[in-house]
Amino acid sequence: MKEEFENEDLKIQDKFKQKTWNEIRSNDSWAIFKIMSEFVNGYESMGRIGPCVSIFGSARTKPDNKYYLLAEKIAYKISKAGYGVITGGGPGIMEAGNKGAHLGEGTSVGLNIELPFEQHFNPYIDKDKNLNFDYFFVRKVMFVKYSQGFVVMPGGFGTLDEMFEAITLIQTKKIGKFPIILVGRSFWSGLMDWIQNVIIDQEHNANPEDMNLFHIVDTEDEVLAVLDNFYKKYTLSPNF
Questions:
Q1: Which of 131, 108, 123 is nearest to 50 (CA)?
Q2: Residue 80 maps to a domain
Q3: Is residue 238 situated within a structural domain?
């Protein structure tokens, strides 16, 4: 624990170090090339993959957890219905999603990112569809650009970030109104009540119609029903 705090202090101290303009400019310029390379590699790899659904959820969920088992069933049914599955490529719910897609003999994509804890790629990703990223924002673009639906399992801050990113892009019409499906009524009900009662009713910080941007379900069959009902009307294509 002491070593962890010391490392954090060193990181903060490094940020406050006085750098010359040339140092700043040089570092930023080289970062641009690295960012570009991640976008190009992501576009070229993902552009060859057919219609997919992203599954978000906690990296900490254990294989015997009910939500892990449910995510596996959902991914299996999604793959059997003809959609590929995209996850963050790591353990927990991500592993369950890739495992279900693998067992369903469907496309299984992992968008991995190097983190100081929790993240390592799982063994159920197709070997040619295991992408690695250094930048969160590049990785998030790949999730959104190549997904025609979002299944959100219980998770932590990262899952909430991904969920609200998708909701915001749909709300602001930056991407199409693709299905956002929250799985687990008991998990999501408190957050939904707060959004309705505080953000919308009390503070008027969102439109009441925004509550229609997502569905809350409990079973794999309900997930498939939402996807199938939506895509009866549309031809699948990348988001933007």
A1: 108
A2: yes
A3: no
